[in-house]
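S.,

As promised, the NAP run. Input:
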Amino acid sequence: MSARIIDGKAIAKAIRQQIQADIERMVARHGVRPGLAVILVGDNPASQVYVRGKIADCKEVGIRSELIKLPIDVTQAELLRRIDTLNADPSVHGVLVQLPLPAHIEIRSVLERIVIEKDVDGFQLYNVGGLITGDTVFPPCTPYGVQKLLDHEGIDVEGRNVVVVGASNIVGKPMAVMLLQRNATVTICHDKTRDLAQFTILADVLIVAAGVPRLIVPQMIRKGAVVIDVGINRLPDGRITGDVDFEGVRQKASYITPVPGGVGPMTRAMLLHNTLLSAERTLGEQPKSLKLSAL
Ligand code: NAP
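Predicted complex:
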């Protein structure tokens, strides 16, 4: 048996084409073009690559983007002031602060400063809390992208054992909660989990977001499992790899995502989606709060 490879790159492309068509309609009908502002503090090389990608994606689909580069020693007060300006600007529908931030800046204060209507990354506490109750303004992009991949492949998680490896605030935890909203039986594993394999082997759907290359090997998965690899790791030789032994696990799984070309492009596409959604809401075209079960 060899798993079906879920082509996140192609699925994300189709989503971008749909977004582009929706934006063209919005511009023609209302004269409004969605706008995304990205704040980049300092010159972290990885952050620069991510931000460049986000700006290029915006251009492709017709979102107006604004990149605000601030020096690494910018004061927290100045950063908050910049966010306030963007919050008040009606041509900006999404505000994103690229993480990580330098140590002298308190991340929570920064994320909380973004008004919820423009929190397209979904990291603001209101959005985080909304996940628990099943209402949210913007679902966080990576778990949202994974959910879209599962939907695209017709993989229904209701009543199934889903194991999420990784419990970060931006990937693992929201992923687990979103799947719980879909009535999956969810187990969350992390660095302190004893004998990871005893949990992963029970998974009908295994979602891995730990940041550890080859953490998941074939002996750890059930035959026919769906395996979603969120990890992005750079090997010493420069290659990018996920958290799953792709070649080994694909012989046993029913579905698997590659790295690169799996979850990554979906994360980027969901940021565009959330920005469009935000602009639609200013026109009264979408409900302010979304029921997660309807996503
Ligand atoms: P993070 O904040 O470092 O969290 C990693 C999580 O994995 C933590 O909960 C950690 O446990 C757990 N973990 C670490 N080693 C483990 C092990 N050996 N066994 C079990 N659990 C372990 O990272 P993140 O931001 O969630 O990102 C995770 C990975 O996904 C990274 O490779 C990142 O680059 C990638 N990522 C990809 C996308 C995408 O679009 N594809 C988006 C975001 C992140 P503790 O909590 O106990 O430390």
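The two ends are 32 Å apart (CA to CA). Residues 47 and 97 are 10 Å apart (CA to CA).

- D.
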